[in-house]
Write a structure and sequence with these properties.
single chain; 74 residues; 80% helix
Length: 74
């Protein structure tokens, strides 16, 4: 029992140390969070990804609607 308590304590200590040493998100001191969001939103790569995701979602919704309509007609 004593060994299990020591093991759990050691794991908790390692997890704490690993968690405190993980890098934080670097925020430029001159740039506000709102400005970062705007900058990331208008990034060309992000725009492309959003456009592709919207097309994919629209295609999936159209397929699903056709299938549902077909199933209702039976």
């Amino acid at each position: 029992m004593r060994n299990k308590i020591i093991l759990v304590g050691a794991i908790a200590l390692i997890a704490y140390v690993a968690g405190t040493r993980t890098p934080r998100v670097a925020v430029k001191s001159r740039e506000s969070v709102g400005h970062q969001i705007v900058r990331l939103w208008s990034d060309p790569r992000a725009r492309r990804r959003r456009r592709r995701a919207a097309k994919k979602a629209a295609t999936a919704a159209e397929k699903r609607a056709k299938k549902t309509f077909r199933d209702l007609r039976r």
